[in-house]
Design goal:
Blueprint: E1 2-8, H1 11-18, H2 24-45, E2 51-57
Antiparallel strand pairs: 1-2
Length: 64
């Protein structure tokens, strides 16, 4: 298992990740309606590097 930590730099980056693959209008609607709350949560939990997110990856080997 491999763990890695990445950092989301801004509250709008949280929205961009969440809305990946959606219509641009969905991003704009969420931004207009929720950016204050998202910013508050982001600022409460972010470090100097940004908001940390952890990914865990597994290497799977299979024989057929």
């Amino acid at each position: 298992m491999f763990n890695s930590t990445e950092y989301i730099k801004t509250p709008t980056d949280v929205l961009k990740l969440r809305c990946f693959g959606q219509e641009p209008s969905i991003y704009e609607t969420l931004k207009d309606n929720n950016i204050r709350e998202i910013t508050h949560i982001f600022e409460d939990n972010a470090t100097v590097n940004g908001l940390p997110i952890t990914h865990s990856r597994y290497i799977v080997r299979a024989k057929v």
